[in-house]
Amino acid sequence: MARAPLLQLSDISLGFGGDPVFDDLALVVQGGDRLALVGRNGSGKSTLLKVMAGLVEPDKGARTVPVGTSVGYMEQDPTMEGCATLGDYALRELGPAELWRVEAAAEGLKLNLDSEPAKASGGEMRRAALAKVMAEAPELMLLDEPTNHLDIEAIGWLEARLAETRQAFVTISHDRAFLKALVQGTLWIDRGEVRRRDGSFDGFESWRDETWEAEDLARHKLDRKIKAEARWAVEGISARRKRNQGRVRALQALRSERAGHIKREGAAALQFGQGPKSNRKVIEAVGISKRYGSQVICDDFSLRIMRGDRLAFVGPNGVGKTTLIDMLTGGVAPDDGTVTLGHSVELAVFDQKRAALDPDQSLWENLTDDKTARVQGRSDQVMVRGEPRHVVGYLKDFLFDEAQARGPVRALSGGEKARLLLAKIMARPSNVLVLDEPTNDLDIETLDLLQEVLSDYDGTVLLVSHDRDFIDRVATTTVALEGNGQIVVHAGGWSDYAPKRQLVAQAGTGPSKSTAPKKEKADKAKPNALSFTEHHRLKTLPDEIERLEREIAKLEELLADPSLFKREPIKFKKATEGLAERQTKLSAAEEDWLTLAARAEAE
Question: Which end of the chain, N or C, is less surrounded by CB atoms within 10 Å?
Fold first, then answer.
């Protein structure tokens, strides 16, 4: 039985005075639909969602919503004029009797409803917008990047609510794990056209690639036909001019058809500049502690980071992930303990607030004002990995055109700002990357490319992210900040750590007030006693060592083939590098185990 449509767009065209964003677009959202809206940054996803919400009027076409159907919209940048608190904004369309709905949503999203909009962060305001639409429970929810600025626990709460609801929703998101858990269909925007694919998100990317392959094949056939017809025209038209004017017109039509094809946007040319090789031991923190008033960031925490390690720092918003990384990289001093950086450490930092970008300057100025990238005496060039590049040419590598180069950064979308910041840090040589929420606003294709680039990066990566899929594909170690100063270090990515969270919680998240004095006394009596984190590390090291030994054995077996170098030189190179990296990690893990085991025996 067909479901009733909740919203229908017919023959929608929209251009904002320039090239059309959409032309003759049509789509239908039916009751019960759970749809992802995906596409490249700048493809018009947010604009289309606003058209669906009735907030943007198209140049042509119709938006149809049946009488009595409620449509709710969660915007990225909500305006809260006239609202004394975030709670007032979230309750704006509801009566006082429904305050409990807002409070329930706020609890799940970790939102303080009493916060004043003027003092709230962008993330808090977006959570208020999400709490508002979740509390209103319209028949159709339109959600623009709902997982941005949510921690993993809040994303889990949102997933659970959306999984159990009977309401239809359309969501823009680049969080693969979120989309795979929820959606039953995908709307894909590509060069002004919207294609729909029903089914789970797991099959979207292979379908997208097949679509592109079919398009490339059709274009290739058309090109061949045009060449054949053009050759005929040159060689035979003079002898048969009157008789073959129809064929000439057909050739012109073929050329017009080919000219009408919109070129598919390429991928950004991402590549990190490799600095000098750092020491084997990059960072060592011993017994560090940090607190701000009553908030404990860490307590007697020790961590050794070796060259090539890829650490993901996870935990609730506000628990201190960025502060911990700042301590590890020398930006913030610990209250107690020591942090030692290895020689020749060169940092490149991608900060979540994009503070390295001046919003009032142009893209051009943001790159050339960087002293580390400036080419002496040239205002139109930037030093990229040791080589001078013209600013516009370098920006084109990151999918910016010449007109954007002279425009202000504040005019860019979130995804474009992220790409610009990547362009800035990728121009510098580095051997330690600090990536604080790099996945916010980046499209799926750029995330894939970033993950590939990080896999080839020869240095060390410190990552803060709430994107579980991205963590799984990048991290070799997960550092989980559980709150109250308790930090757990676990081998592998999020999927490796998540099943152990309950066990860690049962073991306790830190000393209670009644046991804290006893712990302090014990620490004084035994200065070499293992911390909770070190005990956990000692337990997990044997599994890590076993895993590394298995991987080394597989790589050695692969490299034992004498013809591999000639047959597949790239594969040979990657396997050789992978073997050296794992042998280094195995040596470090064995050294750690011996050290911790000796200290445990002395307790």
Answer: N
- CA–CA distance, 185 with 345 (Å, rounded to integer): 46
Regarding whether 166 and 17 lie in a shared domain, the answer is: yes
**Can you give the length of the chain in residues?**
603
Q: Residue 200 domain-assigned? A: yes
Question: CB–CB of 168/155 below 8 Å?
Answer: no
424 inside domain: no
Q: Which of 260, 278, 298 is the last residue of a domain?
A: 260
| Number of domains, the chain | 2
The range of the structural domain enclosing residue 220 comes to 207-260
Compare 266 and 315 and report the one with higher pLDDT: 315
Cβ atoms of residues 269 and 394 within 8 Å: no
Based on the domain organization, do 158 and 247 belong to the same domain? no
Contact (Cβ atoms closer than 8 angstroms) between residue 54 and residue 175: no
Q: CATH number of the domain that 55 lies in?
A: 3.40.50.300
- pTM confidence score: 0.73
Whether residues 84 and 178 share a domain: the answer is yes
The total of other beta-carbon atoms located within 10 Å of residue 143's CB is 23
| Main-chain phi, psi angles of 258, to 5 degrees | -65, -40
Residues 156 and 254 in one domain: no
Residue among 297, 306, 300, 386 nearest 336 (CA): 300
* pLDDT digits 0-9 by tens, 44-61: 899 999 999 999 999 999
Task: Compute the CA torsion angle 587, 588, 589, 593 (nearest 10 deg).
Answer: 100
Q: Fill in the DSSP letter of residue 531.
A: P
pLDDT, one tens digit per residue, over 262-299 is: 455 656 677 787 777 778 889 999 999 999 999 999 99
